[in-house]
Structures are given as C-alpha cells and as structure tokens.
Amino acid sequence: MLTDPVEIEIISKAIQKNVRDPNRSREHFNRIFSDFLDRVRFKKAVLLDLGPGQYDFGELARKKGAATYGIDNDPAVIELGQYKGFPVVHGDINDIRGEEFDTKFDGIFCKYSINAFWFTDDAEHEKHIRNITTMIKPGGWAWIAPWNGVTKNESLTEHDIRRILSVQVKAFKSAGFEAVDLTDELSKYYGVHGVTANRALFVLRLKMPRSVRNCSRL
Fold first, then answer.
1. pLDDT of res. 155
2. C-alpha angle with apex 188: 185 to 192, nearest 5 degrees?
3. Structural domain of 48
C-alpha cells in the first residue's frame, strides 16, 4: 500500500491497472518472505527485482539490509523507483541481455513479470532464460513466478502452448531450478493467480514449504 501522496501521484500514471492501485496489499509478499526467504541472508546482499511494480519486494528486502535493483519498461515504475531511492533501469524484460547492470546478483525475484508466450522461437526463449539465470552469482538464489498468459497470441495451437511451456521448464531446470505447478489455492495465496496456461513457480536454492513441495512437478 502506498500512502505518500507523491508516490500515489507517480504510480497513477502506470501502464498496468493493478500497478496503479495505491491500496494494493503487501500481504502476498509477506507470505513469500515468510515461506521461502526466511533463511536468506539479506544483509549487504545485492538483489534484482524483475518488474518491481510498487517496490514491495524492494522495500521488504531493504528493511533487512539488502540493496535491490529493478528493471521495467514503464516510465511511472521507473520514476517511483527513483523517488524511493532504488537503482532502476528502463528496459524491456523480454529483451534482457544480462548486460544492463555492472554486477551480478545474490538473488533474483520475479513475481508475474515474465511470460513464456513472449517467445515462439525456442532458441530465443532459451536464450532469454539463460540471460536471466546467468545474472545470478554462484551460490545465489531465485524466486520466479511467470505470468504465462496466452491472451495476446491467440493464434497458438494447443501443441504450441505445450511446447512453449516445456521449453520454459527445461531451460530453468537446466540452470538448477526446481519447478512446480502451484495449485489454484496456493497461486492465490502468493498473489500469482489469473488466466494463465499454468501456475509455474521456479525456485533456486530456496527452501520450499511442504504445501508447495506437494504440488505437481513440472
């Protein structure tokens, strides 16, 4: 939730409707921190948030002693990050190259800011995920929940959809990630629910609560 009038005015210009809402709850982020990140060493860590929105993750991580970078293509999100004092780069996440920052990261967080269906070319899709995962320091962690919605590419066949999702899973697993398909209940609990082809969650070197471990493996 945003209460600063300046922050509310800045974010009111955001492209996405849900990002514009200053009354958005931070509870989903609190649950993610509690269930997945309670053993993470935040003090002096350097983190990256792909698509930081209202900087809920960044604020919580900063309170624990971490420095969080961001990348987004929404000018309002960039402006809000600058106002809040976060180093943030204006760029398209779907074209991330791993060269946008002069550092690698102790952890990468992404809540609904990448989409498997940005890519119909498998090699480009694999390269995109490789560019993200190579930004993680050796021994670093990641929590990535894509928004795999197909509404912008309705020409895809069921076979295409299955293939593209498979490419995403294989690419993350080849980088050492665990991959699960969250239940509808858990996707709502963590704030990553919607009209999507699956409810994928990719986790690297983080504990998983038992409820998530019991989900279907991808």
1. 83
2. 125
3. 5-217
